[in-house]
Amino acid sequence: MPVKKSEPAPQGIRLTAEERRGLYAARRFMGGGLQQKLGLRVPFDVYFQDPLVAANDPALGFDENCYIPWEPNLGDGPTSARFAVVDYDAHTETVTPPARWHKGLNKFLDSAGKVLDQGNADSLQFHQVNVWAIAQRALDFFESAPALGRRIPWGFEGNRLILVPHAGIGQNAYYDRESHSLQFYYFDTAEAGPVYTCLSTDIVNHEFGHAVLDGIRPYFNEAIVPETAAFHEFIGDITAILSSLRNNAFRARLVEETGGDLSKESTLTKVAEQFGTFVEERPYLRSARNSLKMKDIEGDQRPHYMSQVLTGAMFDILISLSKYYVAKRQRTVPQAFWDTIQRMQNVAIQPLDLLPPVDVTFRDYALAVLRTDEIANPTDPDDYRAKMLDAFIGRGVLTKADRARLVTPHQIFDRLELDVFYDVDTIASSHADAYRFLDDNRRKLFIPPNAEVVVADLSRAQKFTRQARRLPEQILLQYVWREDVMLEGAQFGRFDGQPTTMLCGATLALNQNGEWMEWSRKPGSQPTGTSNAAVEEQERGNARRQSFLEATARRVRAGRIGPALGTPKGLLAGNTPPLTARLVDGALRFELAPHFGIHDDQDDEPGGRTWQISS
Fold first, then answer.
1. How much of the chain is in helix, strand and coil states, percent to nearest 5?
2. For the purposes of burial, counting CB atoms within 10 Å of the CB of 193, is it exposed (0-12), middle (13-18) or buried (19 or more)?
3. What is the pLDDT, as a whole number, of residue 273?
4. Which of 205, 434, 474, 548 could form a disulfide with 240 if both were Cys (CB 3.0 to 4.6 A apart)?
5. Does residue 614 or residue 75 have the better pLDDT?
6. Are 374 and 388 in contact (CB under 8 A)?
7. Range 317-323 contact pairs with CB under 8 angstroms and sequence separation of 24 or more
8. Residues 6+ away with beta carbon under 8 Å from 182
9. C-alpha–C-alpha distance, residues 130 and 382, integer Å
10. pLDDT at residue 25 greater than cutoff 80
11. Which residues, at least 6 apart from 228, have a Cβ–Cβ distance to it below 8 Å?
12. Which residues pair with 455 in a beta bridge?
């Protein structure tokens, strides 16, 4: 028999390539610690936050406990199943040689064969590994059972998100659906020399949050309502905050900084510190520690600024939970921090699967947060939902009337009233079967008879509670249709007299028994029946249509809609409009610009600056 080449694993364990692949196939049955011992999670050095934090506080320089899931086909680049680093610099028109994967060492090497770690951090190839490892870890965070509990698709055709660590000179970084990429720029400063956005863990996590949301809710891209664009920015920031909290050493430092009181300003509440210092001339770009409420952003159109209301509300919940674990559960501060971040992964990420497929608002998210907790924790003996309600009502996202309605006793799960019964496994078996279910039950699902309904997504999710208790399997069905709308009047400027469409639809979450866990709808104004429920649904649709027209007029008046810019390579244009307009099948579609950037818009006067660098 030929001798099989073995691959190293920690603690002296020697595995053949075949044995390692076998363990890899069974990895879902293993905890993270066991996977590390067996070499199914590989350590890489990445920055805790960014080089500025590392210089000011060496103890928070590099995260030496960043373990990335091993894959059989890891390759040069780095390249993995879901990511590919392509280090093309559009400014110099050069391609930096890729980091080389060494199977025997489980390490990436530079062109000279030196291991790429914190001792080699100045190498551009270390930059490649840094951005790849952070993105891999973030993907694992979102797909894990305490979060979405399912694979995440991208918002484009393809399975690999391209990471461009040195896209060119510029004070920006962004996600670009058109080029299937995350683009990271660099710039020079007199104080600190070159600043590379690909070395900021906060920035990488923020931009990756955009890619995740675009993958699971691609129709959010058609967002004439400013709150939807702001929600994109919230997801970016909350991804950065929660990812930071998961590190043991980082949490230990927070105990030192805050004395256990997360309401104090700390390293945690700052997003993109190095970028903010050298570009915005403030110690950080945005902060979760703010006092903004919904009334403060009424009529606003600046997504980064608006997003702080929801980021602040979630941070209020985080603070409330951490104090509860110390005061009521008698946890030590470090234990309380860990319990808090575990619960916050459930609280903040799992609700994303219950959001409507279009036009999400802060209120939609708040209701999804509460509903997610109700599904996992029906009796709520610790009164967690009261803490969440306090935070959302305090920020003006929900009202006291919402509290009265939500705390009224009601049945947790129920069955849909249908014209034609469908077994839940049949619905979940294919897009075609899901469509037939929708078509056969248009009247009861409030879908107009002549609407061309589309199955936007169909998936199964297996989520866990914080205690690793398996929740009922979720069948998640998103469906949408378009309603024709004519733009008529001088308020629409150059678009006067042109047709467009308003997206309508719903997300239907079912359990394995066919009971609905959530049915989050965005109705249209077309009639779907004569029942009281159908009439009420149409009234809601009429209100949506009016809001759609008003939002469009405000966007036009503020000069925030322009032609689509950029190239298939995703290169940053000099000025990018926040919204673009293009003709599709003879009708206008207003879409978020392909660049969701990190540039702060807090100081921009609404309507004063027509376009900003990478909206």
1. 40, 20, 40
2. exposed
3. 53
4. 205
5. 75
6. no
7. 317/344, 317/347, 317/387, 317/388, 317/391, 318/262, 318/344, 319/262, 319/263, 320/387, 320/390, 320/391, 321/384, 321/387, 322/260, 322/262, 323/261
8. 131, 135, 161, 162, 163, 164, 173, 174, 175, 176, 204, 207, 208, 211
9. 40
10. yes
11. 220, 359, 360, 361
12. 479
Give the Cα separation of 272 and 31 in Å (integer): 31
- Which of 233, 214, 378 has its CA nearest to residue 302? 233
pTM: 0.91
Whether the pLDDT of residue 308 is over 70: the answer is: yes
Locate 6 and state its tokens: 């073995």
Question: Who contacts 22 (Cβ-Cβ below 8 Å, separation ≥6)?
Answer: none
Per DSSP, 149 falls in state -
Distance CA 252, CA 136 (A): 24
Query: What's the CA gap between 480 and 509, in Å, rounded?
Result: 15
The C-alpha atoms of residue 242 and residue 477 are separated, in whole angstroms, by: 27
3-class SS at 496? coil
Please state whether the peptide bond connecting residue 499 to the residue before it is cis, i.e. omega within 30 degrees of 0: no
How far is residue 503's CA from residue 389's CA, in Å, rounded to a whole number? 29
Closest CA to 251 of 312, 339, 179: 339
Nearest in space to 84 (alpha carbons), one of 164, 179, 187, 195:
164
504 CB neighbour count, 10 Å cutoff = 28
Distance in angstroms (rounded) separating the CA atoms of residues 171 and 155: 25
Residue ranges of domains in the chain = 1-39, 40-407, 424-557
Q: Which range, of 234-238, 262-266, 362-366, averages the lowest pLDDT?
A: 262-266
Structure confidence at residue 277 as a pLDDT band (50, 70, 90): low
- Measured CA to CA, the distance from residue 149 to residue 145 in angstroms comes to 4
